[in-house]
Amino acid sequence: MNNKLFSLLILSIFIAGLTNVRSQDITLPVPDKTGGKPLMQALNERQTTRTFTQENLTLQQLSDLLWAAWGINRPEEKKRTAPSARNFQEIDVYVALPSGLYLYDAAGIILKQVHNKDIRALCGTQPFVATAPLNIVYVADMGKLGKKEGDEIKDSELFWSYANTGFIAQNVYLYCASANLGCVIRGMVPKDKLAPEMGLKSNQVIILSQTVGVPVK
Question: How far is 47 from 173, CA to CA, in rounded Å?
Fold first, then answer.
């Protein structure tokens, strides 16, 4: 093999390696289900935060937070840490990080990468959203309720999805209070811009978004 062909081969391997790095899922550590503050103390300290540092959460914090939010706590029944009307479990939890957009796989304890673009700024209209380390986007997959792409989805049909999202978001609030983190649930989301950037189908509906991070003291 001549030097030119060898160089091209090395370059191809290098480019392929970069592509793989950019398209990686994140395997989360097993969530720590012990410790933390007592429930009544966490309730007492639960609050909304709108000022965050740019400090990233650790993978352990991220795993614990997502498990508290919408993890599986009864594996034999595949049931969750938050209630779901008729157990449809139609809410998908998307995670917007500086490294890209991910879908939380509770069963595998994995963040499955959707793409590697930083879309945090599209997760809300307030300035802090773009720089906070984590934005969670709650999406109702109405396909699990029988809605096909192109079907009309009325607001009345999203009633339970809003309620289910509220349960999940409150779990996040309580985890954050217990772990000395801050968060805020938000309805001011430019859904028409965010949904295409997330690659959502017409029967996937953005419900709310929630920003999480280390609060400024």
Answer: 7
Backbone angles phi, psi at 111, to 5 degrees: -100, 110
Nearest to 183 by CA among 25, 36, 69: 69
* 174-208 core/surface letters (b: 16 or more CB in 10 A; e: else): bbbbbbebbbbbbeebebeebbebbebeebbbbbb
Q: Tokens at residue 209, please?
A: 């978004």
Largest CA distance in the chain: 71
pLDDT in tens, the chain (217 residues): 554 443 433 334 333 343 333 459 999 999 999 989 999 999 999 999 999 999 999 999 999 999 999 999 999 999 999 999 999 999 999 999 999 999 999 999 999 999 999 999 999 999 999 999 999 999 999 999 999 999 999 999 999 999 999 999 999 999 999 999 999 999 999 999 999 999 999 999 999 999 999 999 8
Tokens of 202: 């017409």
Contact 44, 134 (CB under 8 A): no
For residues 216 and 149, give the distance between their C-alpha atoms in angstroms, rounded to a whole number.
42
With contact defined as beta carbons under 8 Å apart, do 60 and 27 qualify? Answer: no
As given in the structure block, the two tokens for residue 4 are 């030119």
Residue located via tokens 């673009």: 117
Tokens 């906070």 — which residue? Answer: 132
Q: Which residues are paired to 76 by β-bridges?
A: none
Give the single-character DSSP code of 215.
B
**Interatomic CA distance for residues 69 and 170, integer angstroms:** 8
Q: Which top CATH class is 25-213?
A: alpha beta
